Amino acid sequence: MQMYRGLNVATAKATEEEREGVPHHLLDFVDPRKEISIHEFNKLAMDKISFLLNASGKLPIVVGGTHYYIQSLIWNSLLDVNVNYSEEDHDNLEALSTEELYKKLLEVDPDQPHHPNQRKRILSDLRLYQETGVAPSVLRKQQNAKRDNEEQLDNVVIWLSCNEKTLNDRLDHRVDKMVEAGLLEENLNFIKQFLNESNPDRGVWQAIGLKEFMPLCWDAEHHFNGRLELSQHDEDVKNALDRVKKDTQQYAKRQITWIRNRLLSRVKHLIQVDTSQLDRWEDVVQRPVENVVEHLLDGTLPDVKVNHAFWEQQSASLEAEEG
């Protein structure tokens, strides 16, 4: 969502101060009235990564919360990205007849191989298309041309984790700080400027921090009424903020599930660092991560599954050698 212009507060974009002079790429560049697919993102990101590595000699750091976008960069595989499909989208397709589903699939993928009665496979392809913006038959051809587990670039996945209570407390606090930073005013101005020229069911309009307030902005006849101008103590606005917190926590859980189910078993090098205790940041987070990056830059990453315990042992060994 941070690729779209606007909604700096709602999408928690790093401020200029937070960036500390470090260039950030593919941020704040997509027209919010349009939609960018994972396929388009993949090409833009790989072009930028290649430029930084080859022309600039710099090590890119890919940061994100939408893990299937990152996964597409690691393995160049888009066939399993549809696990993030929302329940609402699922229900919308499920409500259609098999004949209607097949017709929709033919519109976006004329080369699809399914029989008109294969409802389950048709549904799966439609969901895949809505997530990627690419015809499933095209994705399969790409998949067959490249081994799924062949990583495109040497990489290390760094998982910043913490215990569940700490995570939820931090997320709730972040929402409160977003309100202080002008979340309601930002949403209202954004909706006024772009809603009439956009599809509110797609793209940036599904961002957590925006979508929860949409019902407050129009009446029963879908006329804009600007209710977000009301005080944040208004009951409806308070309820919307509660939904933002709940949706954020649920999204964080899905992120963790994705890492455990999709990355841990496949990625070559992954380090999990526990950020629960900020007073131990240097020992528990900073030093282990710096060791990993140094090995990556030197080309000396061990051919073993990297984890936190391993790098604690590495750190101890390095200290012993230096001592």
UniProtKB/TrEMBL annotation:
Keywords: ATP-binding, Nucleotide-binding, Transferase
GO MF annotations, alphabetized: ATP binding; tRNA dimethylallyltransferase activity
Protein name according to UniProt: tRNA dimethylallyltransferase
BP GO terms, sorted: tRNA modification
NCBIfam families from the UniProt entry: miaA
Keyword Transmembrane helix: no
Family: Belongs to the IPP transferase family.
Organism: Blastocystis hominis
Database matches in InterPro entries: Dimethylallyltransferase, IPT, P-loop_NTPase
